[in-house]
Design brief:
single chain; alpha/beta; Spore Coat Polysaccharide Biosynthesis Protein SpsA, Chain A; two-stranded antiparallel sheet; 10 strands; 13% strand; globular
């Protein structure tokens, strides 16, 4: 985006130039001896059957500043695991695949769930285990992660994502990627007309609480692209469901000072797989995503002393609706000046459905505010199970022979 405005309470790193990628890469290569970088990719096997993954692999082959690629693979049979190994064998970096459905990893998960309260499988768990492998090696200082369904993937996205953490002169512990999501129309519905108006509705009711101001400072709080120091990754507790991104930002807020947190513009255009909305199914698609996000947000606020009630959520729902309708008018105008298609009626219908997510999340939080599946930090795991990192390294090494 062609601006240099600093909004909110975190640092924004803009993309003012399009001709300095080689300079950034050269600097990353200079930092490499003492700030080595690992990339963790959470992926379903089905993503290797889609159009995005082959492009991602091709682009990653040029990322010489990446030392290790860890693919945390879910929902894969043994034959599919072998196929993925073959596909990734072309990468020049060291490549490790964590076969989460394999018998060795399943044995490790059982040991974890015997020691800790079980959590659900999902992207959060895949990322967490990928981080665990990187941390177990004790070799890497920077850990980056991004989704595997990015249709417009370019390696310079990764370059810009890791640079703020890898450059020791910048002194950041956490970097969150942001971008504009559009094709012939605006995308990013959950961010545009759910999370942003929900945050602002909350601030209307409870005031400009520091944590809410912090979340509202992120231009794309739900992006799946981030980089952090290994030290931070060791201490993070990670949600296992769609609340991952908000829960992760809440953890970063808990563990870091604001001066060490930044957001970085990583792409002019960004497109990935679009989730459907089925208003009759709160266990799938965009509605489940909105419910999980709302639950994680409400839980984070409850842990900071905010008291919820049935009346609070009724007021919040009404305030959210008013904020969302106002945002729809803004996005309509934005679409018009950029000659993009925009269906105001469809957006209003979407807001009505998202309002149900507030009802569902509110009911669950009132019933049990601590019921959400949070994966423990690696500090906690190693404290309870001192040999777990060795067992993880051994399991992954044995799976290489499959």
């Amino acid at each position: 985006m062609a601006d240099f405005f600093q909004n909110g309470v975190i640092t924004t790193l803009h993309r003012l130039r399009r001709d300095n990628e080689l300079t950034l890469v050269q600097e990353l290569m200079e930092f490499k001896p003492y700030n080595s970088i690992a990339l963790v990719l959470p992926a379903l096997y089905s993503e290797f059957e889609g159009p995005a993954m082959s492009k991602i692999i091709n682009e990653l082959s040029t990322a010489k500043y990446i030392d290790l690629v860890v693919l945390s693979l879910d929902r894969a049979t043994e034959d599919e695991f072998r196929q993925v190994k073959k596909l990734l064998s072309t990468l020049p970096q060291e490549v490790v695949i964590i076969w989460n459905d394999g018998p060795r990893m399943q044995e490790l998960y059982k040991a974890l769930w015997d020691e800790f309260e079980p959590w659900s499988r999902g992207k959060g768990m895949a990322i967490w285990m990928g981080y665990g492998y990187v941390l177990a090696t004790k070799k890497y200082h920077v850990i980056a992660s991004h989704d595997c369904d990015i249709l417009t993937y370019k390696v310079d996205m990764l370059t810009r994502l890791v640079y703020p953490i890898a450059n020791p002169r910048l002194n950041f512990d956490f970097a969150k990627g942001y971008y504009a999501r559009f094709t012939d129309k605006l995308h990013g519905r959950v961010m545009r007309i759910f999370l942003t108006p929900l945050l602002r509705a909350l601030m209307t009711i409870v005031g400009r609480v520091d944590f809410l101001v912090y979340l509202d400072s992120f231009r794309y709080a739900l992006s799946g692209e981030y980089a952090m120091t290994a030290e931070l990754a060791m201490r993070l507790r990670i949600p296992s469901d769609w609340g991952l991104e908000i829960g992760l930002l809440a953890e970063v807020y808990r563990l870091c000072t604001l001066g060490t947190i930044c957001q970085v513009d990583i792409a002019d255009v960004f497109d990935h797989k679009h989730q459907p909305l089925d208003p009759s199914n709160p266990q799938g698609g965009l509605l489940k995503m909105a419910v999980d996000i709302a639950k994680m947000l409400f839980r984070s606020l409850a842990s900071r002393g905010l008291v919820f009630s049935d009346g609070f959520f009724k007021t919040l729902k009404a305030t959210y609706f008013a904020e969302a309708i106002n945002m729809i008018r803004r996005y309509h105008n934005d679409a018009m000046i950029n000659s993009l298609a925009y269906d105001m009626h469809a957006e209003v219908v979407m807001v009505n459905h998202f309002s149900k997510a507030i009802d569902i999340a509110g009911e669950e939080i009132l019933r049990d505010p601590m019921s959400l599946p949070i994966i423990p930090s690696w500090v906690n795991v190693i404290s309870a199970m001192p040999d777990f990192f060795d067992r993880l390294l051994d399991a992954v090494e044995e799976d290489k022979k499959v």
